[in-house]
Structure formats: C-alpha cells, structure tokens
Amino acid sequence: MNEPNRMHAIVIGGSMTGLLVGRVLANHFGKVTIVERDQFPPEPSFRKGVPQARHIHVLLVRGQQILNELLPGLDEALANAGAPTVDWGMESINIPGGVRLPRFESEMITRTCSRNLLEWHVRQRVANFDNITMRENCRVNGLLFDSTKKRVTGVRVYPDNEADDDKGSVETWEADLVIDASGRNSQTPKWIQEHGYKPPQETIINSFLGYATRWYKVPEDFQADWKAILISGRPPDNPRYGGIYPIENNQWIVTLAGMGGIYPPTDDQEAFLEYTRQLASPLIYQALSKAEPITSIHGYRNTANRWRHYEKLDRWPNDFIVMGDAFCSFNPAYGQGMTVSALSAMALDKHLSTYARVKSQKMQKVLASTSKNVWRLATGEDLRWPTTEANTDELGLTTRLSHRYVEKARLVYQRNPDAARVFFEIAHLIRPPTQLFHPVLLGGVIQDSLLGLIGKETETSQLTVSEF
205 and 385 in contact (C-beta within 8 Å)? Predict the structure, then answer.
C-alpha cells in the first residue's frame, strides 16, 4: 500500500460494484475515493441512481459468501434489520419453465432483503474504512491522460454535480488507478474516443423483458410452507414471469415480468393482479388475494444483455479498468448482477496481490473470463425466445442443441432432488454452467431419450399390427 504507484485510486460510481471495488482497493492503496453523482440517502431508501432498486434483488449464495468475507458483520446487521433467510431448496417454490422442482433441505441459505437495505449496509461498512472517502453529488465528465496518451492519470469532475450542460466549474483529480463502475450508462466509450482510442464492439442480446413491481404487507394470519416463490415462463408459449420475495419488516416484494414485450401493467391495480393469474401456477395470485399493497406499481424495461468488449481492443490505456454493468450487464431476471460484481471484485483483489503494477489490459481479459459463464447462462436462456433480438449470430447449432438439452433436463429436475440440487447450485453460481452435464443430469436426459425412442418404436409396431 505504500508503493509509489498505489497512493490514490478513484472509483466512478457508488452503487454495489463501486462499493465492493472500493472495499478491495482499500487493501492495496493509500487512499480510495468513490465518486457518486447522487446524494446517498441517510437511511435505507430509494435513490434515482439505482432505478431498478424497487424490484426483487436476489443475492445469490456465492455473492453472499463473498460479501460476508469482505464485510464481516454484514449478515448480523441485516438480521438485526429484520432481513429473513430462505433455504432455497426447502423454503422456496421454484417453477422454471412450467416444471415444479422438488423440495429438499440444503445449505443454500441466503439473507433476503430489499436492494435499498442491502446497499445501505454495504455502504456503511465500506465508509468505515479510514482510507476510503465517499464524494457525493460529484459528476465525472472525462478522463485525464498523460502526454503520451498511454496512461490515465485521473478524472475531470463537476464537484457539486452542477451544470449538466458542462458549463459549471470543473476540477481535475489525479489518481494512480481509475475504475469505471458507473453502470449501464457508462461514458467510457466516448471518453476514450476523445483521446484517440477506438470504442469497443458491443454484443447486445435483448429479450425485451419488462418488469412491474409492488410491495405488500404479509397478512398477519398468513401461513404457508414456503417463504419465496419464483415462476418463470416457458418458450414460446408463456412469456410471463413472477416472484414473491420476503424482505425486512414482514413485507413481500412482488415482481411480475414478461418477455418479448408482453409487459405486465404498471398503471392498473386490477390488471396487475390479473396478470398473476396467467402465470404457470396460481400460487402468487392466491397469496396476493389476501395481502395488502403498500406501494404503487413501478416498472422497469432497461434489461438487455450488453457486453462492451474492452478485452478485445488492441490498444488500451494503462491504469484504467472498466467493471460491472459498465463493462458487461445481464438481463436482471436471473439475479446474477450483484454476485458477478462480487466475483469481479475478488478477481481484482487477486490481480492487485499478484502484480506490483496494475496490468489494465490483462485485467479486462480476466473480467471477461469471470463474466463469460454467467453471460452464457443469461443469454442462452433469452435466446430461447423467438422474439429476442441480437446484433450477433449467437444462435448457432451448439446453442440450439443446448436449448433442447436444457428443456429435457427440466424434466429430470422435476423428479430427482439430486438433479434439482445441481440446478440450484448452478443458478447460485456455486457450480459452473458446465455442471449442466453433471452425471445425475446427463444420465437422466439420456435415460428419458432412450425411453422415448423405445416408446416410439412400440407405437410404430402397434400401428403396423393394427393396419393388418
């Protein structure tokens, strides 16, 4: 931390990725400044810089493990704030693609809460580090480079978030490392172009998913053998998704979603409830019929998968890294974003522990490697919908075959708790996606296929006999 090139690091963006990155940088730099254009709320509440915060945010098991490692005491603080736990094997009802999974006791237990509560407690812990400074109401509008244009040396900042037309007073802040964690609306492509660099190619896969969310008070007399419900659609017949997620203060977040532009209503309370009747199970409708809504309905539709391929650029500035949604963002329906941010922060920590000087281009490739498996999970599912649009040909033979395999694997999950456990562990990023070919799954798929062939042969034989 006392090395000359590790005096000061700047993180652009104070949401979950920026906070976790700042926490990791505190181990390696004398000073860390997290720059956020919003004002942070003094208590857990919505802020405009996180427009999707009102919706369900699942912190996957792997993400929770990392957060508890980086921020000791976080779990206890969430518990004290009233955040419940869910055993995803036993206490949740999961109906992926119309197939209800068996229930089983598991070690896949996470603390469930609103995004507002989680981010607030993470921010409180990160801010407690003596060498981390939070600068609110500050807008970064460009990068500083050295005379050779080979190294980023800092940022240009409007310190009071003034003058969106860029006519206010501007300051220059120098740093030994700058990390862009500003999210989907990152300006890095524009900023690097201003200094002679090519913008990255982008892969965009858009399933046209839209959300509508409402919070409810759990009825006092409500009794059920579940704590959470997750229902997903099934291509191409039913594009409707829905979820009940338990959070602090004995509340439910209820998020409805639709693929291919079949969006749930955001302006009609009766239509919102009616939408739940069209899900693959009536369970959510039945639960809401007795629950009291405590918020209005909020929508969100900025859900496309977008990968800015910084890792493929031939030329990249030193001492500058792009992370989180600013680099690779996923369809939020699958709940992967916060956990990928945590995995990326750990990858950065390993890089900084390995190399005396940051190797920015190498780190972008590491981040690409960290994200690629999750990208395949999210986009592979989205590409199953005929209405999905992509600016790249990712629907090749391999993808189509994997779709057929996944569809058959769902039937194996349905009847085999061991297979369902593997599915959950993949979904919670404990296992890699290659474990979709785990023997318990592959064996079940092969068995079903062979039985199917035998059945067809029997039908053919019976038809032949009847014809005579």
Answer: no
Written as one string, the DSSP assignment of 341-362 is HHHHHHHHHHHHHH-SS--HHH
Tokens 């790249």 found at? 392
> Which residue has tokens 């040909």?
393
| Residue 80 resides in a domain | no
Q: What is the pLDDT of residue 99?
A: 84
Instruction: Determine the Cα–Cα distance for residues 215 and 461; give it in Å rounded to an integer.
Output: 57
Rg of the Cα trace of the chain? 24
Count CB-CB contacts under 10 A for residue 465: 8
Reading phi first (left if > 0) and then psi (alpha if -120 to 50, else beta), residue 385 is in beta
Q: Which strand ranges, in their side-by-side order, compose the sheet holding 171-174?
A: 139-145, 152-158, 171-174
Residue 463 has pLDDT above 60, yes or no: no
- Overall number of domains in the chain: 3
Counting beta carbons within 10 angstroms of the beta carbon of residue 124, is it exposed (0 to 12), middle (13 to 18) or buried (19 or more)?
middle
- The 8-class DSSP code of residue 260 comes to T
pLDDT at 400: 76
The alpha carbon torsion through 102, 106, 111, 115 (nearest 10 deg) reads -50
| pLDDT at position 92 over 80 | yes
Residue 31's DSSP bridge partners are 8
Asked if 245 contacts 313 with a C-beta cutoff of 8 angstroms, the reply is: no
Amino acid at 64: Q
CA 64 to chain centre: 13
Q: What is the mean pLDDT of residues 217-230?
A: 95
Domain assignment of residue 134, yes or no:
yes
Residue 195 has pLDDT above 90, yes or no: yes
Q: In what order do the strands lie in the sheet with 320-322?
A: 132-135, 31-35, 8-12, 177-180, 320-322
Q: Extract the tokens encoding 324.
A: 């989180």
* DSSP line for 382-426: HTTSTT-EESS----HHHHHHHHHHHHHHHHHHH-HHHHHHHHHH
Assess whether 265 and 319 both reside in one domain: no
Burial of 292 (0-12, 13-18, 19+ CB in 10 A): exposed
Look at residues 302, 326, 355 and tell me which one is the last residue of a structural domain: 302
CA distance 407 to 70: 37
Domain finish residue from 302, 329, 348: 302
pTM: 0.92
CB 327 within 8 A of CB 337: no
Domain hosting 451: range is 397-462
Per residue in 373-386, pLDDT tens? Answer: 899 889 988 999 99
State how far the Cα of 382 lies from the Cα of 317, in Å rounded to an integer.
34
d(CA 70, CA 84): 21
Q: Which of 337, 386, 389 is nearest to 203 (CA)?
A: 389
Three-point CA angle 114, 265, 215, nearest 5°: 25
